[in-house]
Amino acid sequence: MLFKNFKRDMSFYVFAMFAFTGGFLEAFTFILHGGVFCNAQTGNLVMLVIQFVRGDFAGGLRYLYSLLAYIAGILLSAAVPSRFKRVNWPLVVTAGEIAVLLAIAFIPASAENWYTYVTVAFVCAVQYNTFTKLSGVALATTFCTNNLRQTVMHLMQGISQKDRSEYKKSAIYAFIIVCFAAGAAVGVLSAQVLSNYCIFVCAALLLPVLALFAADSAISVRLRAKGAKADVQLSIDDINGGK
Q: If phi over 0 gives left and psi between -120 and 50 gives alpha, with beta otherwise, what is residue 136?
């Protein structure tokens, strides 16, 4: 059993790795799998409408598959933590993402591109909806549109209000954008050399994150066991004291 001992406000390191992975996957699918961005679905929705309006329903379906996979990822990442509250969901997500990324590396080159970008869309939806807050700041690790907006808005508020907390929030958003951009850059360079196997880079970078969550889960189990033992001892003492 995986227990919930993690903090929703997680470390900069965890978010840096996931933002890096987000940028990497955008470059990965665009360069190697049909010029498609999969981390957010605006482009896929527009392409779906374009293809359907043109009467190319078969061509539009591949974008529909990506949208449906994204919706499935959001539903899963919302339903499981709320229904199974003792599950360390970030640990499960990290382990699952590593496994899926490793599997993507072995999808045959002859396979249709939509196999890959539909899978990536699902993974990114789960990641996006799981890792949502850093130091009290709500942000995204799989795309940068709102992060960029928030960087500028908090910077402006910091200047106008002379408020250091606003500067800090702006810096957090900027930090995530830089990590995302770095991931995209590494994705471009490694894709040119390693082709589909370049995705091993992301899996390797997420392994320390998985180790952190596993350690957190182990500590949680130990604390719960210790707390249960203490409760039992208190109950025994109360019984003995009442005699």
A: left
